[in-house]
Amino acid sequence: MNNAFENAMTQLDKVAKIKNFGDGLIACLRQPDRDIRISIPVKMDDSSIKIFEGYRVEYNNTLGPYKGGIRYHSETEINEVKALAFWMVLKCAVAGIPMGGGKGGITVDSKKLSKGELERLSRGWMQKLSDILGPHKDVPAPDLNTTPEIMAWMADEYEKITGDKTGAVITGKSLKDGGSEGRDTATGLGGFYVFEAFRKELGLPEKCKIIVQGFGNVGNNAAQIFAEHGHTIIAISDSKGGIYNLSGIDIEKLLKHKKNTGALSSFMDSKNITNEELLKLPCDLLIPAAYENVLTDANANKVKAKAILELANGPTTPKADEILFTKGIPVVPDILANSGGVIASYFEWEQNLKNEHWSKKEVFEKLKIMLEDASKKISEKARESKTSFRMGAFILALERIKEKMK
Ligand code: NAD
Q1: Catalytic residue among 17, 50, 103, 319
Q2: Are residue 105 and residue 241 in the same domain, yes or no?
Q3: Catalytic: 319?
Q4: pLDDT of 1 strictly over 80
Q5: One domain for residues 57 and 150
Q6: What is the pTM of this model?
Q7: Could you tell which of 108, 189, 291, 316 is best to mutate to test the pocket of ligand 1, judged by most ligand atoms within 8 Å of the CB?
Q8: CB of 239 shorter than 6 A to ligand 1
Q9: What Cα–Cα distance (Å) separates residue 319 from each residue in 10, 18, 329?
């Protein structure tokens, strides 16, 4: 079993060997500023009381308020949340936004809750943590299985407790609740901008054959955006399994199929495959967009993609990273590739605080400029230190944090 936090610290050790940042910075980044565990009692629909375990990790706020999503998952535990919070610190630094890193979660299979139970659980998370959160202290957002509606319940609960009406305590809200234009598609679109910035350097053709793992907010949007730009999605999956069609999968029709049948399997002209098979199929670009630790030392040797764009957080273990690097399969790392989400979240926070509303065009133009700039700098850092793009991104992030710490 891979421990995501150990993996994150292995990455930190690695960058410390490539470039000397001084022991102080590395020591500061070895642990979070604080990690908080809470218990959330929820009255269930049958009137029983169930206790859920929740978390908020505030990792580092050198660059600004802690920022990071809230994950609802049955396997979520403190080490996972710590790793995700650590990556948020680096992600915000790479993106060049004035935010630190944090992450939250609840150990829960949210699909098994009724809407009312889900709302009481989400409001309970906010009640227990409202004193440490705030627009200038710690600003959560959505992640796995958390939605704009959940963000709106939490923002409403925060307003009731504190009287703050800006809505800036939480991002990823729907438009009617003060969200930003474009936030829902920003992670997938951001991934596409990063891909375009790197495409030639990765040696990929103008029109690629692409495989996507995950069919949620990120995977689904990414698949649609790449397809709209003339690329062919040849395989895609969700947690139940995937489908494969070398001639291309119509994502809009697949969405309808999933809505009607509850699964991706048995989609027209496609072959059913497992998630493990999907990772080993030949393609130009593999996009993990589901969960961490899917590319490991057990399967990295069998990957036949020409390049990997990490839209999930932490999909590649350090050992798999080494194997892929040796095989010459470049990996565009999560802390750059999926940073479109946090950049748009930062735009939402700024709009809430200034009481402004930016157009979708404005949001996407700003997003593109920031991601092109970050991509260029990371590529330069990787080249200068003759290392991977991941280590290039770590170097850029650590340099920025060190500079601010001074
Ligand atoms: P989501 O809950 O909307 O979708 C997750 C998808 O992954 C679903 O299709 C689910 O069926 C599938 N999945 C779950 N476990 C799986 C497994 N073991 N194997 C294969 N598929 C599996 O979540 P999301 O918001 O799309 O997030 C996906 C990833 O992207 C996560 O790693 C998340 O941390 C990361 N991320 C999300 C955002 C964002 O804006 N939502 C931003 C940055 C990074």
Answers
A1: 103
A2: no
A3: no
A4: no
A5: yes
A6: 0.95
A7: 291
A8: yes
A9: 10, 17, 14
